[in-house]
């Protein structure tokens, strides 16, 4: 009898766990990815399933960190999560190839749509590398543009020579051309790195000035967009868990997926605006990049495509030239759609649904 009772408890617990999506994110609970994308998405899913699906948000790296979220999804330590490809490049070489193209100019909305369409519909290698970790990705995010921000007294290209600059991936091209030293520092370590003098500048999102209080030490912002990270897998989900959804739940999962893409783009844009509006109160000033910095950025962008292809081949990516060409086509397509809808996010979401999600296998 005791054995039967114990087995019954396990069965009930397993059933409850299947209805609860444990979402792992190293970002803090108040980050826009959580507040403006993840939480609203699962609120809609709770409503769509009549309360059957609920969310257990594990933010701030409580369960999984920057490098362990994908493995956590694979092992079902978490059901779903936010996966950043640049932290695990050897695991996601196809995804990183697409991310490395982010140095070129694009809006966060069109960039997210293009990256999502490429990953989900035109990149078998992208799908396969996620499946290697028993994971299916449903939406990919491009953030707002990186900027360069530095300690007080660094206001020209010449001032940056020899300085230590936090940078990731192909943006190291810019740092190299500045005659500076590229330093690999994780986002969570940047505040301390600035305080301890380990870095003098950072190529990073403007929103982090406020979110991570980097304006305590970074006092100069170069007002020059440097391109953006575009490898944030917003809704990476354990495949076994997803396959256990009934048909109606799967349809709701797909049907609600376009909105997090538009919501998180709007949140990042708003976050940049907020940081800029408040910066002066924290002793931060914006300076126009000089001609030398602009020329260096142009040179880096001109070289970035060839560098991306070379690094992709070294990482074992098949035919990266085709991947690059497809992404450029999709960026042009989604920038045109963005202009066409002219701020109507319902219309943009309808195109995401029609062009991407309606044709995907359930």
Summarize the structure.
The chain has helices at 2-19, 32-48, 69-74, 93-99, 108-121, 124-131, 157-160, 172-177, 190-195, 208-211, 239-243, 247-255, 258-279, 291-314, 320-341, 345-357, and strands at 20-24, 54-58, 80-84, 135-136, 140-141, 146-150, 164-166, 181-183, 201-205, 220-222, 232-238, 285-287.
Structure, explained:
The protein folds into two domains: 19-142 and 229-276 and 308-357, Bacterial extracellular solute-binding protein, family 7 (D-Maltodextrin-Binding Protein, domain 2), CATH 3.40.190.170; 146-227 and 281-301, D-Maltodextrin-Binding Protein, domain 2 (3-Layer(aba) Sandwich). Strands 1, 2, 3, 4, 5 and 11 form a six-stranded mixed beta sheet that branches. A six-stranded mixed beta sheet has the order 8-7-9-6-10-12. It is globular and about 60 Å long. It has 16 helices and twelve strands. With 362 residues, it is an alpha/beta fold. The relative contact order is 0.16. The model is unreliable at 1-18 (pLDDT under 50). α4 (93-99) packs antiparallel against α14, α5 crosses α15 (320-341) and α13 (258-279) crosses α16 (345-357). This is TRAP-type mannitol/chloroaromatic compound transport system, periplasmic component. It is found in: Periplasm. It comes from Tropicibacter naphthalenivorans. One of its GO terms (cellular component) is periplasmic space.
